[in-house]
Amino acid sequence: MSSLKVLVPIKRVIDYTVKIRVLPGGKGVDTNVKHAMNPFDEIAIEAAVQLKEAKKASEVIAVSVGGAKSVETLRTALAMGADKAVHVETDADVQPLEVAKLLRAVADKEQPQVVILGKQAIDDDSAQTGQMLAGLLGWSQATFASKIEVEGDSLKVTREIDGGLETVRAKVPAVLTTDLRLNTPRFATLPNIMKAKKKPLAKLTPKDLGVDITPRLEILEVAEPPKRSGGRKVESVDDLIDKLKNEAKVI
Amino acid sequence: MFSIRAASTAREALRGAIGRNQVRLFGSSEVVNWSHGLTDEQIEYQSMAKKFADAEFAPNMRAWDQTELSPQETIRKAGGLGFGAIYCSPAFGGTGLGHLDASIIFEALATGCVSTTALLYLHNMCAWVLDNFGKQPLKERILPEMASLQKMASYCLTEPNSGSDAASITTKAVKRDGYYILNGSKAFISGAGDNELYFVFARTSGHLGWRGISCFLVEKGTPGLSFGAKEKKMGWNSQSTRAVIFEDCAVPEGNLIGEEGRGFLIAMSALTGGRLNVSSASLGGAQAAIDASFSHVQNRKQFGVPLSHFQNTQFRLVDMAAALHSARLVVRSAADSLDKKEPSAKTYSAIAKIVATERCYEICDQALQLFGGYGYLKDYPVEQYLRDLRVHRILGGTNEVMRGIVAKEFFEPAPVQAKVPA
């Protein structure tokens, strides 16, 4: 099997180095800070571009759902080696299920054989979009990939799971999500950043794709994690259980 | 099943995996944002250069300084990214960007290591010389290797007895049988001994002063080319600085760059761009020092509160930020002027060098003060930025020479005073 068409959804998120500040009111965080491509999505783009370089893929399409500034993220993807970009423009707060529906619509248009996403976005940590997309498309899925190999009409994927590593064979068409150790994303080269300007970038809206993006989840509260307090030594197992139950409230 | 892996924030996993707990508020706040005023593309270059600096330079900055290691392999990685000949034309592998783009890139790289960035910007200046003044066959042979950083270049003008009085150089080049025979020596040459290419200014005619000077490319391995002992320096320790010695060193005719007698003008025009590179690296070092001290004052507590609560601390950092921002604007404006080939670009470039190198050194000094005793330790990066930036007030034409250049715009030269070279 040759010439896989690969779709890579990417998300513009707050840069991982920024110290997050919860806004007064407790409904959100300060977003007037530095943003970047979600690091797991960078890994996804790198994986797709590597498939193209190994001649297992013929085309890499980057897609992003978001406001006007998502174009910056798409350009970075083009500079890393994606062939074209699709911007689904909306300023609304889009949640994982709605994103998955939009991506399904884009996949219907672009007809990829493989979709590679980051395993989760570092802002909401939902870790759902890839899985839901696979469900909506009715495709096989292999998540938390730390290794991807093309074998005939399937993808052999090594997954990082709690118990260790699991290897699955996913028949194409398939949805994959990337884990941290899959690869080290390349730096875009200066010449490639310059060339990216000339690569096609299509714009669509949720309306164009016929998707209702009304959120179904409501954010009740956003708060900082509790400040770290000192540790304590316990005298016995009973004491430990008592503290875990009544103080830490984790059992 | 409740999976701890999925539930733990990816952010923490990344911090651990990448190992740096950077709080880069200055770069990301809207008030003193180093991306302010840049085009989308320039922001991309900046972001990529910064990523590269964070990944490849910053973790090694201290070790390179203390072990005096020259990081050749890391620099070759930079070549693949287009950092080798940033403002040279694409015809022979140059990236084809301008001086403003280069300024943004060198500033970003310098946040990771000023000394290693200096190796790159000096090399870039030499690549520009070859691109602008070299003959086709020489360009064809050498430029692609310079662009990819396969071969690195040193700029050889200064001599033991000719520093600011650059036109007084005495290294001779005598033409004979299709070669120029070079005799003399150069001092304080960055990268000497390690680099493969040497852009050498030598006297080809009996003319004293600037009219008799020509520019040559001398390749390592040429018989008669040797190097002095490695200098022990205050900073810039990730590069070797040595004397370059010519003893009947025969350089092929084809290695002459430009015409005979044009060398000095070549040297000076190269330095106009080179000064902007120096200034840009100063900006990067100061940015890194501010970021580090900003982070420190949030964490360090005295008298029961973080240092950042004290008005003195706040006002110092504001002054540092204001100085950096204004220096940055002067440098970028001068770079833009040079890109537009404005006649006044040279003057603005000199002004930019004065302002940037002096303000940024002061910023590092203030940053060290904010760190208190810790700032004096080599465990913390600020003292290295300070040491690495100190030489920027000297090389590329001292700040005194810069003042001389600008003074010429306002004052007639006094009759007895030696003419400052054009």
From TrEMBL, chain A:
Gene Ontology MF, one: electron transfer activity
Entry-linked SMART domains: ETF (SM00893)
Entry keywords, A to Z: Electron transport, Mitochondrion, Transport
Domain Electron transfer flavoprotein alpha/beta-subunit N-terminal as annotated: residue spans: 25-213
GO biological process, one term: fatty acid beta-oxidation using acyl-CoA dehydrogenase
A cellular-component GO term for this protein: mitochondrial matrix
Gene3D superfamilies: HUPs
Cross-referenced Pfam families: ETF
InterPro entries in the record: ET-Flavoprotein_bsu_CS (IPR000049), ETF_a/b_N (IPR014730), ETF_b (IPR012255), ETF_beta_N (IPR033948), Rossmann-like_a/b/a_fold (IPR014729)
Highest taxon of source: Eukaryota
Record field: transmembrane: none
CDD domains in alphabetical order: ETF_beta
Quaternary structure annotation from Swiss-Prot or TrEMBL: Heterodimer of an alpha and a beta subunit.
Purpose: The electron transfer flavoprotein serves as a specific electron acceptor for several dehydrogenases, including five acyl-CoA dehydrogenases, glutaryl-CoA and sarcosine dehydrogenase. It transfers the electrons to the main mitochondrial respiratory chain via ETF-ubiquinone oxidoreductase (ETF dehydrogenase).
Listed name of the protein: Probable electron transfer flavoprotein subunit beta
Organism lineage string: Eukaryota, Fungi, Fungi incertae sedis, Chytridiomycota, Chytridiomycota incertae sedis
TrEMBL record, chain B:
InterPro entries, per the entry: Acyl-CoA_DH_CS, Acyl-CoA_Oxase/DH_mid-dom, Acyl-CoA_Oxase/DH_mid-dom_sf, AcylCo_DH-like_C, AcylCo_DH/oxidase_C, AcylCoA_DH/ox_N, AcylCoA_DH/ox_N_sf, AcylCoA_DH/oxidase_NM_dom_sf
GO molecular function annotations of the record: acyl-CoA dehydrogenase activity; flavin adenine dinucleotide binding
Any Gene Ontology CC annotation: mitochondrion
Acyl-CoA dehydrogenase/oxidase N-terminal domain: residues covered: 39-148
Keywords: Branched-chain amino acid catabolism, FAD, Flavoprotein, Oxidoreductase
Domain Acyl-CoA dehydrogenase/oxidase C-terminal: 261-409
Pathway(s) where this gene product acts: Amino-acid degradation; L-valine degradation
The family this protein is said to belong to: Belongs to the acyl-CoA dehydrogenase family.
Designated name of the protein: Isobutyryl-CoA dehydrogenase, mitochondrial
Species of provenance: Gonapodya prolifera (strain JEL478) (Monoblepharis prolifera)
